[in-house]
């Protein structure tokens, strides 16, 4: 299977992006309102849509630690 890479430019502050990707409230604001779970390392975030959904296990969360700048 071929890997697909999407590169998206984001101009929001890093802390705002981190919260949008790692908290129930952040994910519910831009992806799906039906979001529950725990966004801390070791936790599981459950994302549900009309056609189903999936769970994401949080392996690590380090704001700006992996950022290139």
Briefly, what is this?
The chain is an alpha+beta fold and 69 residues long. The protein has helices at 14-22, 24-30; strands at 35-37, 44-49, 52-57.
> What count of helical segments does DSSP give?
2
* Shape assignment: globular
Tell me about the largest β-sheet: 3 strands, antiparallel
Task: Work out the radius of gyration.
Answer: 13 Å
Helix and strand run: HHEEE
Structural class: alpha+beta
| Count of DSSP strands | 3
Helix content: 10-25%
**What spatial order of strands do you see in the largest sheet?**
1-2-3
Distance between termini?
32 Å
User: Low-confidence parts lasting 5 or more residues at pLDDT below 50?
Assistant: none
Mean pLDDT over the full residue set:
87
Describe the structure.
This protein is an alpha+beta fold. It has a domain at 14-57. It has two helices and three strands; from the N terminus they run ααβββ. The chain has helices spanning 14-22, 24-30, and strands at 35-37, 44-49, 52-57. The chain has a three-stranded antiparallel beta sheet, with helices on one face. Strand 2 and strand 3 (52-57) form a beta hairpin. The radius of gyration is 13 Å and the shape is globular. The model has no long low-confidence stretch (mean pLDDT 87).
Defining key terms:
69 residues, alpha+beta, three-stranded antiparallel sheet, 3 strands, 23% helix
């Amino acid at each position: 299977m071929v890997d697909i890479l999407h590169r998206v430019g984001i101009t929001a502050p890093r802390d705002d992006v981190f919260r949008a990707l790692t908290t129930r409230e952040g994910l519910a604001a831009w992806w799906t309102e039906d979001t529950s779970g725990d966004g801390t390392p070791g936790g599981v975030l459950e994302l549900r849509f009309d056609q189903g959904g999936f769970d994401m296990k949080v392996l690590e969360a380090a704001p700006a630690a992996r950022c290139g700048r």
